[in-house]
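[job 0412] stage=complex_fold ligand=magnesium ion status=START
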Amino acid sequence: MQATEARAPAATREMFYNEALGDALRLEMQRDERVIVIGEDIAEHGGAFQVTAGLLDKFGPTRIRQTPISEIGIVGAAVGAALTGLRPVVELMYVDFAGLAMDQIVNQAAQNRFMFGGQARVPMVLRTQGGSGRGNAAQHSKSLEAWFAHIAGLKLVMPSTPADAKGLLTAAIRDDNPVIFLEHKLLYRTKGPVPEGEHVVPLGQADVKRAGTDLTIVTWSREVLFSLDAAAKLADEGIAAEVVDVRTLVPLDLETILGSVRKTHRLLVVHEAIKRGGYGAEIAALVAEEAFDDLDAAPKRLAGLETPIPYAQHLEKSVVPQVDDIVRAAKELVG
Amino acid sequence: MQATEARAPAATREMFYNEALGDALRLEMQRDERVIVIGEDIAEHGGAFQVTAGLLDKFGPTRIRQTPISEIGIVGAAVGAALTGLRPVVELMYVDFAGLAMDQIVNQAAQNRFMFGGQARVPMVLRTQGGSGRGNAAQHSKSLEAWFAHIAGLKLVMPSTPADAKGLLTAAIRDDNPVIFLEHKLLYRTKGPVPEGEHVVPLGQADVKRAGTDLTIVTWSREVLFSLDAAAKLADEGIAAEVVDVRTLVPLDLETILGSVRKTHRLLVVHEAIKRGGYGAEIAALVAEEAFDDLDAAPKRLAGLETPIPYAQHLEKSVVPQVDDIVRAAKELVG
Amino acid sequence: MSVIDRATALELYRVMRTIRGFEERATQLFGENKIWGTIHSYAGEEAIAAGVCAHLRDDDWITSTHRGHGHCIAKGADLGKMFAELLGRETGYCRGRGGSMHIADTSKGNLGANGIVGGGIPIATGAALTAKQLGTDQVAVSFFGDGAVNQGTFHESLNLAAIWKLPAVYVCENNQYAESLPVKRAFAVEDIAKRAEGYGMPGMHVDGRDVRAVHAAAGEAVARARAGKGPTFIVADSYRHEGHYYGDPRKYQTKDEIEGWRKQFDPIADARAWIVADKVASAAELDGIDREIATAIDRSVAWADQGPLASPIKLPEDVYASD
Amino acid sequence: MSVIDRATALELYRVMRTIRGFEERATQLFGENKIWGTIHSYAGEEAIAAGVCAHLRDDDWITSTHRGHGHCIAKGADLGKMFAELLGRETGYCRGRGGSMHIADTSKGNLGANGIVGGGIPIATGAALTAKQLGTDQVAVSFFGDGAVNQGTFHESLNLAAIWKLPAVYVCENNQYAESLPVKRAFAVEDIAKRAEGYGMPGMHVDGRDVRAVHAAAGEAVARARAGKGPTFIVADSYRHEGHYYGDPRKYQTKDEIEGWRKQFDPIADARAWIVADKVASAAELDGIDREIATAIDRSVAWADQGPLASPIKLPEDVYASD
Ligand SMILES: Cc1ncc(C[n+]2csc(CCOP(=O)(O)OP(=O)(O)O)c2C)c(N)n1
Ligand SMILES: Cc1ncc(C[n+]2csc(CCOP(=O)(O)OP(=O)(O)O)c2C)c(N)n1
Ligand SMILES: [Mg+2]
Ligand SMILES: [Mg+2]
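[job 0412] stage=complex_fold status=DONE, emitting structure tokens
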């Protein structure tokens, strides 16, 4: 299905992606005093990417709870808080640091409800950001959505636009399950119209960001913007690419993807994470399984090279799909 | 290519899988004094699954270095030791505990060489075990190979037989890169012929464990045994299944897989890990990409349900592919 | 040491005896192949769970460990639902999904046994944060072993609790071993409680064999927490009578050590002795309690055993909560 | 305090001055958009790296941090290759793959800067294990910030080093902040060095502004390690002159605080003062050293700047070592 917003909001305002996230936090904190934010540098500094800027003044240091550098302690405390009545939103500064906290994310947050036979809910959001493009090198640039997607009990969201960022974060905070919310460091300063006031984008709905008939590009996060740019270039050459932004990787809106592929008969999955074992494999495999006879060509993946992210700017770009790479891959697929 | 052992060993002996692993450790420790084993309960107790039994007496407590319960400390110490001249083999008791140590595995071990521009080598092996089947429930039964497969800089091995266990562990210890070596808790007490003395199975070679013409079953670890049983049952019904044991997931022997699929025209990937985001998606996607025109049917995956592993025996079996499930899936694929 | 009144003394005795009885029966059922997986007996350590939980209300929280039956019982769990869980029944606390290592009873504030050593420590810390944040006077207690003290989670959690002055009590059950590793080889410091100082929190070291000592120390710590004065770290020395898990060959111990400690270290025999000697109650009264407990356990097992097997049909639906 | 001979005094001065010069130039290049990514200046903390590394041989190991230039220089790195790395050149230490946060120089025992706070601590512990295992008298030093002390890796590593009596020295650079978090809000304990006691290892607390104090403490700790007597934890109080990273708006600090500390806390000005006052060397001599260093830095930048850009062609081949 197409994106159907829960309510049709009256007005929109141009906002940066990080502002839109902050707006969602502010509104949800106002709405529900159980919502708190926990993380490093989120108070006076406003968060490494300025998402929580201004919230300390509004909500004070107990609800904007700045922590020492203790990732597993913080995430674990959020799990405990979620089990006992709060609705914590954790800010993990870089997804690369998830390796310090995966035990609490996976063995505790994701599994508690199931292991306890349904006795518990773990309504928490883990916000973090990934991706390359700022010269932060291999320990601050990874795309690790595949790790979370493979864990039963987690939901997984990766918004590409300011409006989606706000609407999906609102939905994530209201969800009674642990939601991993992955932002991209190069999206924070992108701008777009964002509905004012309450804005909810339900989890589990893909969004066709551009319609087309010749091939389907399935993508998420920053590569949505690259794919839209590529689609514009392709249009100049007479190729109509449909761009499906999955938005939530778990639960996945497979219907929308299959619907698109049944129309275009060609699938290109694009993501920044390295190809081997990336979530693109899941989507390509699902489409191959479910729509084999609809495909006119082998399903194709365009994704990161199998290397850590290098530091230098030109190296960094060389390992992650750029607009021209998408154009090239699309032409190969169609041609 | 088929499995080609580096040397043709003179004699074999029936051994349990855990004995075969212990044999590899013993021989490599004798051969190279830089090889040490680090882990919990590996000394007097001989390891949770008795792989290191007897090694303490032979090599003493400095080379069989038993540790407190400090997973990230231990793995990190192994990284430091590997960088400076030892060749540590870490025993992590359950792969489920990897969540505590992923930072050192991924941000340090896997990436150090690349980040340092080639200045370093990290010759270490992380041995651990996963899988269900012993009623250990959700925190002691996971199959997490997909996490490691997605990380540039790691190699990844999952042997299914005692002979492969010995030969691949030997190769892993001799490899100059960090190798994740995943055993299965229900394989330790399986028996088979194992070459005596030095036995090396090179990394990156799949093994066709049973030849067939009607479909290709690509699988690894314990599901190899299930798939072989299923293939025997299928044979009774006139279906000839070829069973490809990938053995090393990274580097992957794609040639052998494609070769088989080009012969049988049908692919069934079977693994115990949950399907969503499992490594089976990578294999299905690769085959769909590389051998689309050779496929007579949609590539199919049979894998764990999207749930944590439950405790009770009958529940546990219900979420992980069993022999009859494989038979059924194969028949659907062929029929 | 604070004086314990008769009701408390008998209640502590009853809880300890119930735990021991539960463990004995669970061990027996395991030996009969009726229990699947692994179980870790709390026998020998009963004074700790009993002495600490005596100070807790139903709305206080605990986190427990792989060796969790004792904490669970001391926090008020139903024995039948516990046995049913071990037997894989739909009527068990976790509907057969969790087993021994994951029994939780959220109605009594038990946030679960935990198969990850040290895994419960930050969770209890978070529960204490909830109490502080919502302005209640609830307290969170984390139980864990000596082995868990060398996990990063211990360190990060105690520091967080100290800087935030959380209403938390951290209870280390030092039973001398972490699986096969003797505590002497896991620490270079003599007194584990000393670590508390590094976090700026009080540390207490008690004899975990003596339920009165545990009760007194925990009383102080819980009161401190409830009054908003911050966390405490308690180390209670103890000994596990059984191996690490059912079936442990105990190659790392001598027979003499095991027998010596077992005899010397029995909190229930000790409690019986002082209860009778101090004339709190007669041996006959205690025998009566013992019999009541035995009957309750028999009934619980019988109830559990007639429960339906856990249903596999809805497993995938149990993963996520819906609204 | 041990007396420092003239050669050592001048060498310490030279190292500190070189670090400062490097940071000033790197900052300038960053401001000119010639450096990509992030850099964290070590200005103000030079006495720590200089004082500690003065005791180390080329075959001793260090692990460093995101704020790693100082440690790298003190351990003997080539300035040209460092600048080349920042400039993304094939001639840089990491061939443009690592950048500021990952500069390593294994030929000098520098096992790398590290972008993960606390990430280097277990690695140094492992290096110390190598020395012990192979029976050499090498020593491993881990540098890290006050922020890293609340990471689980700190805890687990110090315990391992203590129980194994490893030749390791753990150096906490307490520069009063972890990004925007003041140390007072991260710890409930007054003296961070107190944590050492909990591991059964000696803790030392020194004034990190005074290179003589650092040199003396590190001398003891390194000697202890080299003699096989086990690890030491040193806390050196310090202050970073710049923001956390280049461009930090420092909203969490007042102008007064920054200016006050900067003036008060300058290890190089201090060293100059006592070197001249104690007549170890004249101001003119020190000026000469300063000029030499300035020239060396100019030359290094020029050399770096003419190096070829890092080649993307072989990136995938750099991931795995082959035989
Ligand atoms: C993180 C982690 N590492 C290792 C294990 C395996 N394991 C289970 S119990 C145990 C020993 C725990 O010792 P301690 O904390 O002292 O508790 P005790 O069993 O003595 O009650 C170990 C190593 C685990 N469950 N979790
Ligand atoms: C595990 C981890 N968490 C968070 C960060 C983000 N971060 C980078 S430096 C830093 C502060 C470090 O403080 P400290 O250890 O005191 O070192 P300093 O910067 O003061 O030298 C933080 C939080 C990180 N790099 N790694
Ligand atoms: Mg113990
Ligand atoms: Mg600092």
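Confidence is low (pLDDT under 50) at residues 1-5 of chain A.
[job 0412] exit 0
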